[in-house]
Amino acid sequence: MPQCLPPRTWIGLPLDCDVTRMLPITAARTLGHQMARRHTGRRWALGGGFAVLAATTIGAAGAPQQVSARVVATTVPFSVVSPTVADHPTVSGDGRMVVFTAPPANADGRASSVWLSDRGTRQLIELTVPRDGIRLGNSVLPVISADGCVVAVTTEMAFDLFRDEDRGTRWDVYRTILPECGGVANDWELVSTISGINGQDQARGNVDPTQPVAVSGSGSVIAYARPFASLSGNDDPLNGPTAIDVVDLTKLVDEPGRSVQAAGLPAEAAGNGAVYVGERNPALSGDGNTVVFSSDATSGDAVPDWVLPVSNGATTPATVPSQVFAWDRSNADPFTAVSLVSRGSTGPANAGATNPAVSADGRLVAFTSSATNLVNSPSLTACRTSCPAQIYVVDRDSDANFVFDEPGTTSVTLVSRVPAVTEQPIIAADGPSSSPTMSADGNTVAFSTQSSNLLQIQTPGGGEASDGDLLVADLGTQQLRRAFDSPAPAPGAHAHPHLSANGRVLVADSLVAGRLLGDTSITGRRVVLASFTPRLAIAHGDLGTVTVGVPGPEWYVNVVNDGPGAFVPATATSDTPDFAVTGGSCLDGAPVPAGKSCSVYVLLTPSHSGLIGGTLSVAETGYGAITLTSPLKGSGGEPALEALPAGVDFDPTLVGQNSAPRIINVSNVFVGPTVVTSVGISGANPADFSITLNGCGTQIIMGQSCPVVIRFNPLASGRRTATVTVGTLAGQYTSIFVSGQGYYSPSLITTSHARPGARLGISGTGFPADATVLLGWGDGAGRTTLATTDATGAFITELLIPKGDRTGTRTLVALVADGTEAGVAVQVQRVAASGPGTASWPRP
After folding, report:
1. Which of 3.40.630.10, 2.60.40.10, 3.40.190.150, 1.10.3470.10 would CATH assign to domain 747-828?
2. What is the pTM of this model?
3. CA separation (Å) from 105 to 81, 144, 513?
4. So what's the pLDDT on residue 557?
């Protein structure tokens, strides 16, 4: 548990600090990481397993069956970025800039060019425009830096004629600084160089155009793949392994150390007949100091060698599985600078690992692997050597001491898995998953999958072999949701996902953009974008009565992020001088991931007697910035009351139910007796809390206290907050912040068997009150129907199953617009005909 901050009074409890360790005057119970988790959504526990509301089955076959809810997200804002066929997009950290590959504006013989879509100015700009005097060529696989200033591309065009001879088949990496950041349009700087005979760096010309480059957060460090070159020169540049070069663009061309080969490869080729791929798929941390890659060498050894192939008796050349490694460029010791990342408690991934992505600080690494030994899963044990590829995340510093890869301090989480409560067995995705991409904080992971068991509503098949459905996982809130979601999902025909640094924008290329938008004029593969708005909660700040002219106690006003994506606060201000913002973690400039919180310290120094009001604003900056406001309130006068604890956070509570009661003791801190005349509830959600006992209706002598008992009875899901105010006859008062998490537990009840041509009776409970519920089959086939819940969140309806409808075990799903969802398995089967003339009728 992190060390708590100095004793202060809390307004909105944090998610990562045990407030019970603070001084009694400010003690308040917190649920730690659980506070933002108990809301409707697919969930899992890091290092342990998914955690969702438990599923139960009641009755035998043919009897009513009840299954508790598993919830996915609702439809999110979705748009098509490219006006023509396009692919391989990447997006800037704030989601404003998107670069991608598409045909050139002019039909000049090139197949592909690089384009920039500026969502802020709504401009679409071709970046790789041919220059006079250079040979035309294609440009592919653009990558934009997180700050949105630098674009790196792999291109056949020799933009630097001084260093690029432009002969034969050639590919090089160039970068440009966008005009918004002080650059010049179509001004390209050569990145991929090799030392020439005359000592001057020349264009390398042999960059691998099938592997995207990696770019640091500011674009000052770029990594790319090119053919491996042994010391002896006995290499196959076309079919041999690749190596990774890392270029520090803060150094001048020809300056020593500007371009270096990544550590981790042997000096010579293997020469054993096996096929090696070498180092591939580079990824860079935000500062460029950590280079993550896959390799089929023993790259983590002090002296790397090629991994020996395991003979399988085949006549074709053997291949060797790769592992994922991390190279710390700041570590001057070549024997310890490279670490193996793709390993569990029993050793390296037994089926290899590829396609890594890394968080900005280098701590979290996602990758793809078909291994069976990284987590304990019966489903992976059963499939043995034929397991579909899964998505894993490795925490290289699980003890958070800023030392990576210490023995026993790394943890592995399977992201592509079926949700379950913590102690239930891990069930992996039943189809291959690939292409992981991470937010800067590593808390949000998006990936492509062809599985059918991760979400209840399935997408139809379709697309190319490498396409899949795109899912987004928030590790902090333990939610798994579909990126391009709709009540009847389009085919999972998407590829090449890329997340913005804040995890709130996802770009990809898709074959079904027109289907998602309902626009038949949109055809072919297009670059598409989904944007997510996090659910943020900020408490109302009531600081009570404070002596005029004297600074009162410092209060914490907390901002809770329920996701999806991160909130990145930059400023916290008060519009009233009496309320001073004195600090807090919201001013650190660090992202607040989903499932976490930040705090603002507020201090009241009344300038006069009586009520004082103001507004606290906590705001991001830049494109897509979010601003939160909270009313501030207090009073100038002589304090008479003090509450213990000053804040209460209730256990997550089912909507419509009552929590366990909590007792607040209100003490008289005045110099004489005082009389409590009012106990009330105000703030954001006052109706979600109730006072069940007011023991403060009489005079309180100096130094004595009286009890106030409060319950939490949420009216809706999500974070619910309010302020309990206890006032005196003289107008002094104290306030207690109360909060809790409401959640739904919807369920469907129907018969376990049904037949085509009949109507299926359905009842539901535990849904939002007075809500429209869409009911249909999780496989997307068949009819749908609508129902409306009553004041208790229940409904009764029926669904016609057409005679020609699909049979077998199917999942009936009920979905509400806020994302609340429940499902139940139904066996749809045809019934043999009976009567005269049928096979079942007795023959004479």
Report:
1. 2.60.40.10
2. 0.84
3. 16, 21, 21
4. 87
